[in-house]
């Protein structure tokens, strides 16, 4: 029986809060500094378009808490770098609204908005979910800003990853981010996942801080259209190359490794980029004295985020109305079964959330799951079929991104438009 859920993810501390299960969570700020900055949250929310969303009655209290200013921001703690938390929160809220506007505009249905607040003044979030739409079976676009004591298991995991947390420390964390998973109805249209986050921990005794960014985006088609793969990967490469020429190859490989389903010996999809623990400024901004390290990495995250709407909407416009057979729909459900397997068995963010007993938002943790999925015993597509074609790709990852040197003087928006034009031309030629 199909099931559905609304949600906003919260923690994926070990690898960077909220990696997948739709963790609208991200990276960090500190304990001594303000936990989150409600002014930027409230200002961005007020500026968001009211046309795309419908606020449920149960969300009103959380909205009023923010608007009434009960969640107050303390003065930012003195630090060597500018406190970027207000700017990052404003960024993810703005992009969340832009994504919801674009998806709703394509689908014709509005998102349900669920604004929530964690007990004891430990966080706020905004989950936007559209399900059973005209184009999309389910779309969840979530933002979280949370803080609190770091669980001992997370402390051990971070220490094993090289984080400078002293033995016996009981650090506090701050995390903020945006996460989405979108499942279309049409099996010719791909599922997509995105997550960008900022995380920070502080030792309350020594006041020593650690911070980093994480994130990425990946595409999961049931049927392979090479022009879609090229456009998606090339857009991410353009965002990476703008900041550091080493980023794309590193993060693409990381993505292929992270989304590998070991027990199936195949990847979840055709990849994209994935990164974590990013705390060193990009190579192209080393000489920028006007940017702190945090601002430089946030600028990279911003470009990655802003590549999403033009790229995915371009792909969806080509695929959403394509004809398909009942057999092709069944194949989509089988591939979605793999999506569920990865998210529930392997994804570190989902496992962390499910192992956190206090105040866990199960709806948020599981929002990435599709409404429908299918499993068949010993199913293997016939050789030479379109189904076998996508299986070859998920078992043998490819390099899809194209060289865009001839566009090196173009603006980022112009590059996105050119990639969409090329993909459309390829699709027309393939008809």
TrEMBL record:
NCBIfam families in the cross-refs: PRK05330.1
InterPro entries named in the record: Coprogen_oxidase_aer, Coprogen_oxidase_aer_sf, Coprogen_oxidase_CS
Keyword RNA-binding: no
Coiled-coil features, chain-numbered ranges: none
A biological-process GO annotation: protoporphyrinogen IX biosynthetic process
Superkingdom in the source lineage: Eukaryota
Signal peptide start and end residues: 1-18
Pfam families documented for this protein: Coprogen_oxidas
Gene3D superfamilies named in the record: Coproporphyrinogen III oxidase, aerobic (3.40.1500.10)
Keywords for the protein's UniProt record, in alphabetical order: Heme biosynthesis, Oxidoreductase, Porphyrin biosynthesis, Signal
Listed name of the protein: coproporphyrinogen oxidase
GO terms for MF: coproporphyrinogen oxidase activity
Pathway: Porphyrin-containing compound metabolism; protoporphyrin-IX biosynthesis; protoporphyrinogen-IX from coproporphyrinogen-III (O2 route): step 1/1
GO cellular component, one term: cytoplasm
Oligomer status and interactors: Homodimer.
